[in-house]
Amino acid sequence: MKVLAAMSGGVDSAVAAARAVEAGHEVVGVHLALSRNSGTLRTGSRGCCTIEDSMDAQRAANVLGIPYYVWDFSEKFKTDVVDDFVAEYQAGRTPNPCMRCNERIKFAALLEKALALGFDAVCTGHYASLLTDSDGNLELHRSNEVAKDQSYVLGVLTAEQLKHSMFPLGASASKAEIRKEADRRGLSVANKPDSYDICFIPEGDTQDWLTDKVGKAPGQIVDREGAVLGTHEGTHEFTVGQRKGLSIGRPAADGKPRYVLEIRPKTNTVVVGPQAALAIAEMAGSRFTWCGMPPKETSEWAEILVQVRAHGDALAAKFAIVEGEMVIRLEEPLLGVAPGQTAVLYAGTRVLGQTTIDRTVSAIPVGA
Fold it and tell me: Where are the alpha helices (DSSP H) in 102-242?
């Protein structure tokens, strides 16, 4: 097969490309330039897709003996990921930019361009596995390396996209083994630290970055009954579940800490209350997709596992499609679920699909 290897400049994508070459595929490496500031450099393990990363990817491609290109996706990345991130926060939601990047950049724009150029598949260093069911349909499953499993952020992939995807690291034993393999292959990125935090906010201060983009918008902080407890400089500075930085002078009647329960952008209000009120019994979203073949029956309640954070636990739940929404009811309440987050459904290790959460239902009603 003719394979386009997406090379981020990290050890995982370099080893994935090496394995694709070793498997006998015709491999071409490509690095996506996503930053609009061409002078951006990585700071330790913060940030990614920088000039430094591009050079690391180039060196890896040279060792592997494959052609290498840099494709400028900065404009689309700004529109589809960065601008979307800002808009979601302004709308009172908590977005996951990695999900949007996988959905709109790596497995939409990149794959579309790859197919147009005659490639059969895009290869990445994600830790996830592709398996085939008894009818020959592709399924996305968790990686054998549970600690590094990235199937959650790939939950946005469709059946058609799975047909043109390769994840050579899916059956890997551990990240330590990947680093040893990179060292054996002579790849200089063998000991390069993993990137973390949001790639376009390399300093790691999301609130400060958002304030610089949208400015301040003073409003009120209220309790669940509507009593005003304090003021804030902008709802974008808060996320559901946040405890620190609320700046409420008056303590709660029971003396316990308050947490952000809800963000209401229309009234520019932040709602706070006890930690127990963060418990969510139900979540739902109208923007849902199936990863691979969809379930045959979706109108009846079915038992599944649901995960709402990249490294969170998969929790027992039931789901059904009700009046155009994917509705998920948890067996046990989950703390701190926010609109804008992504709920990924699993059947065992298989990814069934995902939805962007539009609304949640508290396990504890107001006044309880």
Answer: 110-116, 159-162, 175-184, 206-214
